[in-house]
Give the backbone structure.
Amino acid sequence: MRAVYLAAPREITIREIEEPRLGRPTDVLLRLTSTAICGTDLHIYEGRLGSGEPLVIGHEPLGVVEAVGDAVVNVRVGDRVTVPTHICCGFCRNCAHGFSASCLTTNPGAFGAAYGYPNMGGYTGAQTELLRVPFGDENCLRLPGEPGDRWEHDFVLLADALPTSYHATELAEVSQGDTVVIYGAGAIGLLAIMCAFARGAIRVFCVDAIPERLAKAAELGAEPIDLRQEPATRILDAVRSSRRGVAWRNEDANLGVDVAIDAIGFQARDPHDYAVEHPTSVIDDLATLLAPNGRLAIIGVFTDQDAHAPTDPAKRGVYPIPWGTLFRKGIRIGMGRDHDKRYNDHLRDAIVAGRMKPSAIVSHRLPLADAADAFAKFDARSDGYVKIILEP
């Protein structure tokens, strides 16, 4: 079968690999109808996440069940399903308490497993034609409809992008009446706009430097702010201008946003020289922007090893953080991988009910054979590549 194979950093090929088989009685085989390229795939593609070892990449599948193991009870051949990026057993301590991204059995000796990720269990990636799903009953999310229908691009985003974005708003406790700022208008930042409004936010600012992404943020109802044009100053000015008059008397010291979300992570750019990485530029701005008692969610990836980082401490995952400002303001902070299983069923139901349309962010659907060109353009942020779906 064909698979998207990362042979070396920035070297994508389509390779014939052996089809997976049912290895355990709890396994399911999934024939893919769509598979997405994630921003995290770019970290791997660039050699920034992991050591650059060759692998079949990808972790956002959607398809139809082709075979089930003898011990699978609740999934049947012909079911349309997606599966979470993070592979979970459902019965270890972490899974039992809702921390499925930290499963203790699917990556022995460590915590957390995923498809197509370095150092996360060695599972074959999902940018292929057929995928082995361990613990099928626990991981398969059953879906209505038929392949290629109006929900195809919505449902594929249930594997990772939409739950991750919702997790960001959950970490930040977005609620009725909040003003929110999101740094990053990639897929996660854009879907976080959607999730923030769904949770009751009344105003969302979105900061990025790519015009097509800012335009999409505006389509979703956010106020787009160019990263290169003093975003913190512009946002504070906008908030200040909306809080004049007797209703906000004596509240000048409370100026700021209620919620801030970092959807960029360790490859943040210098706003004064976008070609240069500045890993702490986002957290510096967010510490300035947050009002006292605000909430901060960090959903953009950070890694504890990055040989190509701009500073020696950053190569070890060590970054200077404005703890004094955050402490003085009493900022609550949440971060980390999303526990997909907490969210994906009710997000599915929101899609089916017409309350969410995550496919609004999809920019391209391409054949699997075009993966190399898609990765190159996505990595370059060119030609409007925002969220790409590959057709196996």
